Amino acid sequence: MHHPGPPRFLATGERTELAPRDPDPDGRYAWRVADAPPGSEATVGDAPVTEFTPDVPGRYLLGLDAPDGDHLLTVRAFAASYEGVDVAGGSGTAIRDRDGGDAPAGYAARERREGVGRPRVRVDARVEFDGDGAAGERAGEAVFTATPTPNPESTLDAADLAVTFAVDDRDVERAMAAGRTNPRDALDVAEDGRELRVPLDAVPDRLRVHAVAVARDSGADPRVSVADAAAVERVPADGRPDDDAGEAGLTPDAPDFETRRLNDPPEWTEGASVYEVFVRTFADADEGETFDAIAERIPKIAALGVDTLWLTPVLGHDGKPHGYNIVDFFDTADDLGDRDDFEALVETAHDHGLRVLFDFVANHTAREHEWFRDAYRNPDSPYRDRYEWQESGEPGTYFDWELIANLNHANLDVRRFLLDVIDEWAPLVDGFRCDMAWAVPDSFWRELRDRVKDIDREFLLMDETIPYIPGFHEGMFDVHFDATLYFQLRQVGRGAEPAASVLDAVDQRAEIGFPDHAEFLQYIENHDETRYRVECGDAAAAAAGAAIMTLPGVPMAYAGQEIGQRGRRDAIAWDHAREDVRDRYERLVATRREHPALGPAGDLARVDYHVASGDPTERPIVASGDVHPDDVVAFRRRDGDDDLVVVLNFAPADASVAVGLDHGERDLVTGTECVVADADGTDRIRVGDVAVVPVDSE
Questions:
Q1: Residue 180 has what DSSP assignment?
Q2: How far apart are CA 565 and CA 676, in angstroms?
Q3: pLDDT at position 613
Q4: pTM for the full model?
Q5: Catalytic residue among 435, 482, 497, 525
Q6: Are 210 and 128 contained in the same domain?
Q7: CB-CB contact of 101 with 463 (8 Å)
Q8: Residues in the chain with pLDDT < 50?
Q9: Which domain, by its residues, includes 197?
Q10: Which of 93, 250, 536, 664 could form a disulfide with 139 if both were Cys (CB 3.0 to 4.6 A apart)?
Q11: Catalytic: 435?
Q12: Cα atoms in the 13 Å half-sphere on the side-chain side of 460
């Protein structure tokens, strides 16, 4: 189906890319503005992949004439409330438009400075039945409920927020094709605007409903949330959605519907912990035997307690060791091993309880790629339009990357090619880590998500977008790189910021508009960064490693981090492993796994705490020797009955910390007692790098 995808929620003046899905490069595609609010002069271009910018608030219908028929796409536009900001609604467009020197870091600073206080929303679905559902009676309704939440810094209450719903145009089209009632004609929205009902006889194989929360301060333009969505799906006897499922059996005792939320990360990520492998230096291997060598180390990785393996690119490349300059997207690199070796590695990982993430590169090819070699020397090359070009005649690129060339995602051959790459590798692995996600159009990521999630709902999509963008959780990605927390942990380790600022970094996720169901990859180093202990020292590295394991998110260890490795991309010094560091990581991972409060779903709360020196016989003091109050932070994590207080100490000496909570005496990480009494008889938690202590039940 060439339909361009889900409804769009935009600010006036914000561009969005329009593209047919599953394109035929030889097909004919034509766009038009089928309907627009009064006063609009907005238009669309003539190309199959084009752009649209709403110019007045209201509802637009954009038409796409495609080889499989005519399609309509709803765009809801709101008055711009982001004056002076390049982007409203969290699109990556502005980042892609900047030159390399200002992208992408400048975006975060500007968004933060302007104080874009976006609300948040959650959409849930259920099915309700009227009466006994007997044949001939109205069987029931699909009910969609939106729960809006104000921005944490807003003065508005939830009751002050409005909700705007949009039924997915693709499902309207399918309902009409199946001879059902148009869901839009049959829907009923509650008086408070927070609930939408659709009779089940208007539901095709799947009915998706999207919604945004809208905050309207007096005298100000609206601020609009990241959209959320839920679906009601028909489930026939064999368990697969089927548009031919009949009306018989629609009773409370035998419902043939299921409901699900569309933007939730896979359930397994709630307890996930990631281990990144830089494939070319992880194992000492001869040419072509790297996959086998990595497979041999899988038991050791699994013994650490992690459950997800991220492999840097494994495809044919131009010889640079990082592997991101790809020349063959459909086969593995000769220096690593053949396709069978890679599949055997994945199977070994699965046998040891590890899921595998494939590093998917969609922004560029290597300049050694056959397309580029032909296009660069021949202006009339059939591959010329598959790349971006500068006026100088050089290809588009970012920063000082001289060995790659940016793909032109407006070219249907490029789109078709990348979709084929997805189809080639997605069935083998458990998720994609998407390289340079900020540099690829949103419309492509939305198509990727629908494509893989329709096959495997538990397939993980993780974006490398630095800094993170709230809108990338709107029908695109499940887990987002948290470079904000990464940077703050570096600042704390260097002594430039107090330890308590890591809590500010976590709070910022909601403050800039991420919904509560978004998840974040927490890390202190990776293949692009200097090792944390090299920059900040061993003591801070121990506390920072504990921070990513105890704050809400998905923790990641970069290979070698767990043994005290100091080189960024050097061969891992397995023979010189620091067993004390590995033991610490094993205990941290185990503690996190055993306590749901430490996972992404656990609540995070600030607590009162007071830092003294490491000598419990001293009276409380502000600072002493190698310990300063700014080196320490304490916080509470709670999930149901699992209630914990966590204390992190970045200083090179032990600290004694009084916490304003009644708590136990045993550190769950070490299994030893950690509470001492000072000269005044006050209980203090004695902490080296981290202590996790149960909170006494009230």
A1: P
A2: 34
A3: 61
A4: 0.92
A5: 435
A6: yes
A7: no
A8: 82-116, 133-138, 240-254, 620-624
A9: 122-236+255-262
A10: 250
A11: yes
A12: 30
